Amino acid sequence: MPFTPRTPRVVAARRLQRRRERDATGRFLAEGPQAVREALSRPRTVVELFGTPAALDGYADLAAAAAGADVPVSEVTDDALAALAETVAPQGLVAVCRHLDVSLEAALASRPRLVAVLAGIRDPGNAGTVLRTADAAGAGAVIFAGEAVDPYNGKCVRSSAGSLFHVDVVRERDPAGVLAAARAAGLAVFAATGHGEENLDDLADDGRLRTPTAWLFGSEAHGLPEELAGDADARVRVPLHGRAESLNLAAAAAVCLYASARAQR
Amino acid sequence: MPFTPRTPRVVAARRLQRRRERDATGRFLAEGPQAVREALSRPRTVVELFGTPAALDGYADLAAAAAGADVPVSEVTDDALAALAETVAPQGLVAVCRHLDVSLEAALASRPRLVAVLAGIRDPGNAGTVLRTADAAGAGAVIFAGEAVDPYNGKCVRSSAGSLFHVDVVRERDPAGVLAAARAAGLAVFAATGHGEENLDDLADDGRLRTPTAWLFGSEAHGLPEELAGDADARVRVPLHGRAESLNLAAAAAVCLYASARAQR
């Protein structure tokens, strides 16, 4: 018999939609075949896989991969799946995963040449999008610093489109400590801010983007904290050629990260 | 007495939340002080301004600018404002505006060096964000082509963060006609697509981005129609250095438009 919304294991998994429960258990939910596939591709990440009979049949390769890794695979009713999923069309699969963040030290020890630091970014969609863009630009680590959103928030996981499982994710309360550690690891620290005194194009022209770099991004609503931006090696603005007053966070991060990626090659 | 949600002019304005009504009347709603300020900065754009007494007092400069342009300014109750606005915190102001799109011919006659074509982009948030990014990158025109979202959709207007009022906006049903007209106006046409055979970095390296350019962007869900991409001068992919399978639309558009902006300077 498939599990229903009232089956204790479904009830327990559903609690992971709340941050407190994720923090307490060190687990989170990944929904949809793409995320489940990425999660299964990492050793010891998936704890349990729930699927409707139709989805477990349609994605038999994923069900087999889970079983092959000794991950329990449980059939659930459509209602139970809907209760576990946060989207309207969850495509029948939800995995319970272990937190996968690494320490700041471990992330920097692998000597990434490009790092994104999300300082106090509260919007999960924005954070997940920047995580995805950082992965695409070749960043080795994405650091959620200060009062940032939980990277395991369902919307952040979905917006990352799998990239949560690709890069070293770090959670670090103290943004100033992140800057110090990044600098000690040989990274230049550039703060992306609309009020920056340096123009991104100038940094590209004079070769300063070629160096291993940690980019600091702040929240769309509040920007980067003054003292954090002040502590960076440069405060950099994306040039505004037209009449827009600013770029949104995802666009600004894409332009900065890709400028570094291009300069570093 | 301030207008209530039942006052006929409020009822009529509220109908503009529906596309059919916008199409029939050639009018749309812009909410919040930033959008209202941008709208008022254009001649003959604002038809009527509604505001709560507190907002008309707090933004007395906007109320005065409207009155100075012979735009009727009407006090409304908080309930009426909430009915007119589509956001939770509309900051007390909503303007009824005239459609401001121009013909394809007029937009190209001003010889823009950078143009964004949104081909069949249905998501209003995505469309508005790309419009904002195109403005920031210095694009002179943004063309909504094919079965694209209505640029006057409330979410598109808000996501554009004022840029709807800055660039030449064009609505054109036939995307193939847009390509032909752009080419006739001396623009290279580059299709941004994850499957493109050319790498954006290579176009930058060999100087092909220096030419006046129209960038074609498709919807995040469906991409660019095959025949439209095939008709472009080049099909261009943003390089993926990490393990992400793709970029989201806003990020890809930002990287492409800024690559052109940088090359053209």
With strands numbered from the N-terminus, the spatial order across the biggest sheet of chain A is 7-6-5-10-8-11-9
Which runs of chain A of at least 5 residues are low in confidence (pLDDT < 50)? none
Number of domains of chain A: 2
Q: Which topology of the largest domain in chain A does CATH recognise?
A: Alpha/beta knot
Give me the oligomer status.
homodimer
Structural class of chain A: alpha/beta
At the first level of CATH, the class of the largest domain in chain A is Alpha Beta
Strand content of chain A: 15-25%
Q: What is the number of beta strands of chain A?
A: 11
Q: Helical percent range of chain A?
A: 40-55%
Distance between the termini of chain A: 55 Å
C-alpha Rg of chain A, in Å?
Answer: 20 Å
Which architecture of the largest domain in chain A does the CATH hierarchy give at level 2? 3-Layer(aba) Sandwich
Bulk shape of chain A:
elongated
Mean pLDDT of chain A: 96
Describe the protein.
With 265 residues, chain A is α/β, with parallel strands linked by helices. Chain A is 40% helix and 20% strand. Chain A has two domains: 8-98, Ribosomal protein L30/S12 (60s Ribosomal Protein L30, Chain: A), CATH 3.30.1330.30; 104-263, Alpha/beta knot, CATH 3.40.1280. Chain A is built from 13 helices and eleven strands. Chain A has a seven-stranded parallel sheet with strand order 7-6-5-10-8-11-9, with helices on both faces. Chain A has a four-stranded mixed sheet with strand order 1-4-2-3. In chain A, helix 8 (124-136) packs parallel to helix 13. The first copy, chain A, is elongated, with a radius of gyration of 20 Å. At the A-B interface, helix 8 and helix 13 of A face helix 8 and helix 13 of B.
